[in-house]
Specification:
Layout: H1 18-27, E1 32-38, H2 44-50, E2 57-66, E3 69-76, H3 79-95, E4 109-114, H4 115-120, E5 130-134, E6 154-156, H5 165-179, H6 201-207, H7 212-223, H8 247-265, H9 272-288, H10 291-306, E7 311-314, H11 321-325, H12 333-336, H13 340-343, E8 355-359, H14 363-373, E9 377-385, H15 388-398, H16 403-411, H17 421-433, E10 437-449, E11 460-461, E12 469-470, H18 474-479, E13 485-490, H19 491-506, H20 519-522, H21 525-532, H22 545-554, H23 559-568, H24 571-575, H25 578-587, H26 590-595, H27 598-603, H28 614-624, H29 629-639, H30 647-662, H31 667-680, H32 687-706, H33 708-717, H34 725-734, E14 738-740, E15 752-754, E16 757-759, H35 770-783, H36 789-795, H37 800-808, H38 819-830, H39 858-869, E17 900-914, E18 920-927, E19 933-938, H40 940-945, E20 953-963, E21 966-976, H41 991-998
Parallel strand pairs: 1-2, 4-5, 5-6, 8-13, 14-16, 19-21
Antiparallel strand pairs: 2-3, 3-4, 7-8, 9-10, 10-13, 11-12, 15-16, 17-18, 17-20, 18-19, 20-21
Amino acid sequence: MYLNCHTYYSLRFGTFSERELLRLAQRNHLKQLVLTDINNTSACLNFVREAPKYDITPVLGIDFRNGVDQCFVGIAKNNNGYQELNQFLSHHLHNGIGIPQQAPNFKDVFVIYPFEKVHSHQKETFLDHEYIGVSIKNLRKLPFSRLKDHRDKLVVQQPVTFRGKRDFNAHRLLRAIDNNVLLSKLEETEVASADEKMYPLENLAAAFSEYPHILENTQHLLQQCAIYFDFSKDRKPQNLKCYTTSEKEDGELLEKLCHEGLPKRYKNGVSEIIKKRLTKELTLIKKMGFVSYFLINWDIVSHAREKGFYYVGRGSGANSIVAYLLYITDVDPIELDLYFERFINLYRANPPDFDVDFSWRDREYMTQYIFNRFDHVALVGTYVTFKRKGVIRELGKVFGLPKDEIDALSNGTLPPSRIDSMARLVLTYGKLVEGMPNYVSVHASGILISEKPLHHFSATFMPPKGFATAHFDMVIAEDVGLFKFDILAQRGLGKIKDTVAIIKQNQPEKANFDIHDVSGFYTNPVINNLIKTAQCMGCFYVESPAMRMLLKKLEVDNYLGLVAASSIIRPGVAKSGMMREYILRHRNPTRAEEKAHPVMLNIMPETYGVMVYQEDVIKVAHYFADLTLGEADVLRRGMSGKFRSREEFEKVKGKFRSNCIKKGYDEKLIDGIWDQVASFAGYAFAKGHSASYAVESYQSLFLRAYFPLEFMVAVLNNGGGFYRPEFYVNEARMLGATIHPPCINLSHIANVIHGKHIYLGLMYLRELEERVMRSILKEREANGKFTSLENFVDRVMISIEQISILIRIDALRFTGTNKHELLWKAHLMLSKTKRLDHPKLFPPKCRNFQIPELHTTPPETAFEQWELLGFPLCNPFELLQEPPKNKNGQRDLERYLNKHIDIYGYLVTVKNTSTHKGERMHFATLLDWYGEVFDTVLFPPIAAKYRFRGKGIYRFYGKVVSEFGFLSIEVIKMQKENYIEDPRYADMKTSRKMFTTKK
């Protein structure tokens, strides 16, 4: 009887979830219910999935509105009608068109016009599928309305938006947030009526007792509605069924491609092991109906190779020899003994994960290719929810709290004495609104390619990038049988591709290598020594302080070691305490026999009985706890958080324990193993995924080892990595480069290298307009280098403000004239002359201005660079107010081992973390006087006493300690050192303040 129900996917309007709506309907004795969210279908599929649990027959529709102005409600008679509604809504969302007051002539949709709207628009005629909705509130007006004569067109339209007053209050706050107004200024027209509630069925019938025909019409309408989506375990995949014209042809093509790939991948011959593995995989892939899924991925990467794009195929699909032969991945599962059942098994309904990474510059092109290549494509949606801090800020504004109070309340630093009634309301309703969807966004990488039009499942919207995006997320997509293709962007591939191009330009005689032929890199002693000594700055996935620390502790010097390290570094392994245990067993293999359970050691001998990869969860569940492979995969997926609350996961969790007890394992052992599984399963990588990462790491490391300067330029041009640009500039200097500030004759927008000379790009001049940069390059390319300031001003249309930036950074140093003199000249030339935006026929005659001799000091230059580039090109230690008392550095740590050291460091990065007790502590990475990296740790008592106060140089006193050969300093005390006053403002009282702000 309820034809107009909202969930909180009626964004910033509705107040509870689709499950709460179903619970509410069950309490009010309903057997059938229509979900009609406002211009949104996010909840629809899960509503259909969950409804049978509440013994309710679901019906789907859409409440079409312009803002809060309700035009009409569309209710799908069947799946075709639902698709019609989705197409109609999507058309308006894609094009930013308002909803019309008159519904189109749908074929399988009932249209209900609200009673008030029919009155105001004086609508007299109605098509067969069109009705007039009457709410309980409208019953007072019905006897006096001409609409009472349309007996066969009247139906119950009692909207459902609230469960009670609390929801109504939350709704008003959401409307105020949506309108960005104070609650007191919120207009009544923006708020739903407080009586938009669900009443028990008998109460609703009693309210309409004088109009039994309205109840009969409503019931008759509902009886004609049925919607079906298959959510069973035996559901068929909804992805594109055939890549070619038939499943038979698909299978033949897949086999053909695999056999063509065998001699290319296995140049030393194809063994029986390889043949058996291929046969096993092909049989299972066909049986599970995943052939087209493989072929679509093959199509995508084949096109990328044709375009010369670099990519990395990873995910659990990297466990597959078929993926390797199709060049979807570059990981040989035979070489690495990758666990096939992690990739695919008979109990797994969903196909394997293929995450295909492209350079951040190529991803959009590849996404467009997929949209053009296949018929039914959309991006996967995701929900951006109200987070605690954000909610408090939004509600603080709604209640009119002052900004400082909002900040303190959001950060949890507002003293209890200042938490008044308004602040308490913010906190109370913040808890209610927290977690609600705020808006629908785009999944980071997921693309759906389906057999049916995507509007069969959902409406789509059009984000700024211009790719249609579904209203539902990946979890619901998988539930209904739609499995996403992950197309990601990363900068690491851009670095590799750009380095190869820079080498061809800077050292063409050495560019005769194949960056994709990585097998030789694995045994290269120069590369492996870089890993062992953790000289990996700029290299994909291995440059962070944590990874550098791990590589040194493990003494990694080979490919397999790096594969393991790539997964061990993940948070779950560290959290379980097994990272430390792995290191101990790695350094002392006899420890594994002493500490590891024999079953665990037998399952995972390669990792000393420690769970490192996602496959290990499946292995432990299957061999240790006797779960089936299907149950083990449910356990692995459940640990990721996707299905943590679902019954199937809880059942498997219980069976894990009961099976272990039956096998006679000690309870303490069971608890320990379960804790390991629970703590990291959702965070660890599949082994194939780690191996794919390691391949890209080795490519980066090869370039870093043999072409370090070109590599650093590419790193900088691709946005750096874990660290700020200045540290890659420092690294390039340490590797032998001469660093030059931007130059209008030699620099480009990005950084360039000539021999060993790196010229920083114009892009680092934060205030320089892109238009000016392009004008400089265009003019230089067309008519050659600039010869003087006058020549530059004549050839490039530029303002005095913009040319001042270039002069201050010394970009016209080729003139040999001091920049202060150039600034005077520029002001005299540009301030009084009207500029013409076209070339002159003849060179202008310039006056020779008489300017006194001026000078620039190195500190002035450094501070100018600091302001314009964001960092100085000199040694920052030279700018200290008080020269360092010593020049201790990383090279001195060994001789200070277990002793105290006094050391200065330029802050690179700080990792703030908490102990198990919740106490704050810090790990800091710094550069010493010589530009070398060292590490410090501030344990909770010291972290409570001393704080890092932004970028700059700190002086430390602490003890040098070694953990598994990794040296660091346990800080006892520290202080931030002061720089000299900015000499440009030395005579100004505010000089220190101004410089602090600029820093």
